[in-house]
Amino acid sequence: MSEIILVIGASGQIGNELTQKLRAIYGNNHVIASDIRAGNEEMMTSGPFEIIDATDKETILKVVKKYKVSQIYLLAAMLSATAEKFPQKAWDLNMTSLLNVLDLAKEKHIQQVYWPSSIAVFGPTTPKENTPQKTIMEPATVYGISKLSGEFWCNYYHEKFGVDVRSLRYPGIISWKTKPGGGTTDYAVDIYFKAVEEGSFECFLAEETRLPMMYMNDAVNATIQLMRASPKDVKIRTAYNLAAIDFSPKEIAAAIKKHIPDFTISYKPDFRQEIADSWPSSIDDSEARKDWGWKHDFNLSSMTKDILNHLKS
Ligand code: SER
Description:
By secondary structure, the chain is of the alpha/beta class.
C-alpha cells in the first residue's frame, strides 16, 4: 500500500523542505501540503495544498478523508522566543494541534504520526554536556513545557491506544531556503544571510554560547528515516535525542570568515540569552544511532560551504 502523507505546517522552515523531499520520494500527488497560509510557488505548484488551522480538528479530518491520508507530519508550532511573549497562545497551538492529530490516529483515521520535540525539553538543571536521553528535565520556557508535555502525550497514546507516533528532539535547525521565525537558535540562520548581504552581523546571543545544531538536510533525512524505520526498532516513544554539531556564535563566525574574510560580528545579547543558557550545549544521541541507524552528514565547515554557495548564487 502506498502512503498518502499530510504535512501540517508545510510553509514553515522545516515543513517546506520536508514536503519537497517527501514529494520526491513518494510522488507529488501522495504528499498533501497544508498550512494556515499559502506556501511558496514551488510548494503550491508541485502538488496538492490545503489551508489548515492545526487547532481545528474538523478541517484536518476533512482533508484526511478527502485524500485518504495515512500519515501526518505535524510541524505547526510556536517557537521558543515568540512563545515567551504569547504563553497562552503557544500552549494552545502546540498542545491542541498535537492532541487533534493523536486523536485522529487513535480513531484510526490515520496510521502514523510524526511530531517534533526539541532540545527545549531540557532546562537549567539538566547536565549541559552530552546531555543523555534520560536525565533531569525541568524546562524553563513555555515552549519547552509544551514540548515535554507533548512527548508524554505521544508516549501515552502509544502505550494506551497503540498509536504509531514518532518524535525527535531537534537541535537548532539551520537552513537557507526558508527562514525560521521566533526561535532562539535563529541567529545561526540569520548570520549567513547578513554575511552575504551586508558583511556584518549583530548577534543576540553572547559569543561563547554553545548550542546543539544541525543542517536542514540532516534534519530532513533523520525525520524520514525515523518514520520509515521498522516499528520494532523505534524503542523510544517520547522523543529521541538527535545530534550533529554544536558551536558558539564565535565559532560559526570564524567558519564564515574563511569564505568571507572581511566578515565582522558584534554581540548584543537580549532576552533570548536566558533561554539559550537554559539549554544543553551538546547532546548524546547514541540511542538514535543504535536503534535505527542515525548518522549525520554535515559538520560546521561543510554546512557553511554549502549554505554560502547557495546564497551567493
Ligand atoms: N530552534 C528552536 C527554537 O529556538 C528550538 O527547538 O525555538
